[in-house]
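WARN no homologs supplied; continuing
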Amino acid sequence: MVEPAPGDIPTDLAGAERIVDAIAPKLGPIGAFKLGATIAQVRATLGLPRQFFGTIPQSRIYPDGGDVPFVAARQRGVESEYAFRLARDLTAADAGLDEAGLIAAIDTVHPSIEIPGSRFVGLGAHGGFGLVADVGAVGSFVVGPGQKLGDPARLTDAPVILEIEGSDPVTGGGAVIDGGPFGPLLTFVRTALARGYALKAGQFIASGSCTGYIDVPTGTLVTARFPALDSSVSMRFAAEA
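OK structure emitted
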């Protein structure tokens, strides 16, 4: 666990992003990008002027229905998100990509569960800029079956239901995200390319949470249902060895 000294936490978003850009290559091949603060109220709470992103290494992406190892999830909270899988590489030549071009560049959309993780004592323990510098609080990622994207507008008004074994379901939806689940993607692509990231075919882009952050007991079955996709994704936190 990282204990920052006075002055270690950046004082602006640009400084936090420089830390992310330095750390990301050391985490291993990127399997997914998580988008954060894609909801205006969340940005206001964190004091962030715009959305951010973090890189999820391929080694921290787990299959639908499996266990997430204890060592990969010190924090035991989950978020339900749409995940968009790239059909082709996006390069500097795509800097001027428009929405129609981005829709064409996406292969499939998937139900997913993001498990945020912090190197600090807790998520957001050192404010918004600290959270971003913490590689956007990337932890682990579970991805379910995909289907062709089609019209992304269909994802906006559809509900998303998070079911935690032994608890009442939590209902949310894509409408809480600015512009719907697809809305933040174009800004992300342009920003990531400008910062020198390679966006590769097969990588996922996670929309941001549709159901908020919910703590989950170890061993409990978690299922996120996405009626717009007529599919779901599930996982459990494994007990400590």
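Residues 13-23 form the longest helix (11 residues).
OK
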